[in-house]
Amino acid sequence: xxxxxxxxxxxxxxxxxxxxxxxxxxxxxxxxxxxxxxxxxxxxxxxxxxxxxxxxxxxxxxxxxxxxxxxxxxxxxxxxxxxxxxxxxxxxxxxxxxxxxxxxxxxxxxxxxxxxxxxxxxxxxxxxxxxxxxxxxxxxxxxxxxxxxxxxxxxxxxxxxxxxxxxxxxxxxxxxxxxxxxxxxxxxxxxxxxxxxxxxxxxxxxxxxxxxxxxxxxxxxxxxxxxxxxxxxxxxxxxxxxxxxxxxxxxxxxxxxxxxxxxxxxxxxxx
Length: 271
What we know:
Elements: H1 2-26, H2 43-47, H3 49-72, E1 80-82, H4 96-112, H5 121-127, H6 139-147, E2 162-163, H7 171-184, E3 191-195, E4 208-217, E5 222-226, E6 239-243, H8 253-262, E7 269-270
Antiparallel strand pairs: 1-4, 2-7, 3-4, 3-7, 4-5, 5-6
């Protein structure tokens, strides 16, 4: 009799535990303080951080050299650059990474005039280790997934790398120079991991979320974001211009990216 009682208690405890935990998983995409679309910890990045930091530093030095030439020709940050990026609404709550990656690939397909079809969200998600309603995206795997198409769509000379901005004295300068450089040269379609709370469109709604950048407006200090969020009330039809601003500003792209950087070990730039 005692054994039956103990077994019943164990089963009751297990059922209770399941009933408590399931709503948290199901409602994760609606939680103001979390979003299953982006991992908090990118294990691949942490295990090989020196390698990724070296790539980041090398590219920043190349950008610095190019910008010195631009300064000499008085063409500094006055440019206006856009690239064609096709909006792609994410199909599942954790698919902002695959959707943003697919948006980036749409630019390379258009630029290369390739007849090769862009992979579906589910196919590209599988490529970067993301399945529907599962865990979120690792930025390093996102970069690696994009680079699997570098020969197909002709961007092998400018493969995607990952990076952060919070380690710099002026994060806004780093973010702006990287985006301006790659868009002006039509090299990549940068992807940003950000906290939506700091974007005006979101009215305080706070997701960790990936978006693709398709435009830079130097004179007005703005970036055009192609936002795959399935909550379309926040995305202005899929793309919108947002102020770059500073890491300390009340709102702006830099603040949103910098905050995502400070709170996690998942790189906030794929470019």
